Amino acid sequence: MVGENAQNALIAKLSHFGQLKVEDVDLLVALCAKEESFAPRTNISTEGEPPRSDFVLTSGMACRYRLMPNGTRQLLTFLIPGDFCDLRSFLLRSMDHSIGTILETRIAAIGRQTVTHLFAHHPRIAAALRWSAMQEEAMLRERIVSLGRRNAHGRVAHLLCELVWRQMANGSSDNHAIRLPLTQTDLADALGLTSVHVNRVLQEFRRDRLITLARQRLKLLDVPKLQGIAEFNRDYLHLDDTPIEVSRYLGQLENDELSARKEL
Amino acid sequence: MVGENAQNALIAKLSHFGQLKVEDVDLLVALCAKEESFAPRTNISTEGEPPRSDFVLTSGMACRYRLMPNGTRQLLTFLIPGDFCDLRSFLLRSMDHSIGTILETRIAAIGRQTVTHLFAHHPRIAAALRWSAMQEEAMLRERIVSLGRRNAHGRVAHLLCELVWRQMANGSSDNHAIRLPLTQTDLADALGLTSVHVNRVLQEFRRDRLITLARQRLKLLDVPKLQGIAEFNRDYLHLDDTPIEVSRYLGQLENDELSARKEL
DNA sequence: CGATCTGTTGATATCCTTCAATTTTGGTGG
DNA sequence: CCACCAAAATTGAAGGATATCAACAGATCG
After folding, report:
1. Residue B234: how many CB atoms within 10 A of its CB?
2. Using the beta-carbon criterion (under 8 Å), do A141 and B96 form an inter-chain contact?
3. Contact, B76 vs B22, CB < 8 A?
4. For residue B223, how many other CB atoms are within 10 A of its CB?
5. How far is B158 from chain A (nearest CA, A)?
6. pLDDT per position as a tens digit, A164-209
7. What is the pLDDT of residues A230-241, one digit of tens each?
8. In chain A, which residues from 163 to 202 place their CB closer than 7 Å to nucleic acid strand D?
9. In terms of C-beta density within 10 A (0-12 exposed, 13-18 middle, 19 or more buried), how is residue A40 classed?
10. Cα-atom radius of gyration of chain A, to the nearest Å?
């Protein structure tokens, strides 16, 4: 059951880039077959160590983070089911940040050869994975904007919106409500704030009937107002469909491959 | 002359990933042949518009940035000669940020087919370009760390170190001195500060003999102390050589290609 | 050689942090 | 089911880092 949801998350997410063919879906589902499990609050990957192979996060939640010399922590991104992590990282000698779990989390490792094969012979999937990497990069940029130019209210509202929109995109949000297993300290470490201040902001949001948040359930009550506070514009998530040019290009590649096969 | 420097920048930068073969260098030099020029403080690429094709920045300086509804600006990254920009961006319908010049800037556009060809038939160059993209992503993460967890002194010191190290890597820094054509407002917009505050920090740095900065020349006088203030660790720039495994992999690919050619 | 952009300075305001205590929550074993 | 414990959330008071505002000086450039 969990496995099924997990696959759905990956498929649901990549479908925002473009329609996948049945064989693509089958392939992606097969990729997620052998899972590995990590306890809550443990490291999947550690700063300074060689990168692990690519993986898909199939259930749970994790984050990329850095520890500072004085012990403070900066969360960089959150990883949710359907996220395909660290494409290309094998090019690096060592990780420049860590990846740690929030909850019990399952990942499906994707071998280097598999990735290479996907990129060489499955252009539609390859393009979708590249798109997914672009999306993660865009989220990094958006976080910079948040930290640089939004006040605490804006930052909190923006992060909540982002998490909800991402979970809508991977099919695990229901009416702007999601599971949010983060502590206020986690939020603070992601937003460059203190947990005390995050607490006060959240309480204001609750008082103003913008959200409810209790027992790891977040619900956005007043989406327009929150978007206003956050200056949230979903465009950076690039959830719209593929540019026509790319569709044509992929169709072309497919034809090439078909004719190549006939020749064999 | 400028062109030569420009090529050197690209070659110098990519050489930090791994030794390039003569034919790779020739190919990369040829890529930078047809340049296009942009006046200072103009846009190369604009938020909301379709992405332009990939390009190499061959001379000058530019930045990625976002404009906020209230008119404030957040600079995301600086682009310097040798930077290869927007691999994969053709997958997106529209830009989520703008790219603007600081100085008069030249770029060499790389057509989509060229990029595709490089990735298909020049694995060493392809790997180097992917590495370069990873490096840019790592710089985004590092900026998040700066904005989230470093105070103004740390942020300024870190950015100055980053710019100097990057220019060392592309061969345009001499003894920790670089050309820095940024206004204090530019720095402030990159660091999530006000120009007034950046000014005061810079003056302190000057008073403490940590830097000199005048007439667009920056020199780091006390590198260890600056690194300490910045908590700067160059590891995230991944300037060391390639993991052995990757070298082997590339060597393998090369052999495959050679034997394939023989068969023809 | 004047106009304009950039850098500099000082006074005041504010957002957010820090510190420290208290309450609530959630989990665990008896 | 309750007692207990640790972690998380909450609250208040005080301090500090950075912003804001406004004025002026200095640089740069046609």
Report:
1. 15
2. yes
3. no
4. 14
5. 14
6. 999 999 999 989 999 999 999 999 999 999 999 999 999 999 999 9
7. 999 999 999 986
8. 183-185, 195-196, 199-200, 202
9. middle
10. 19
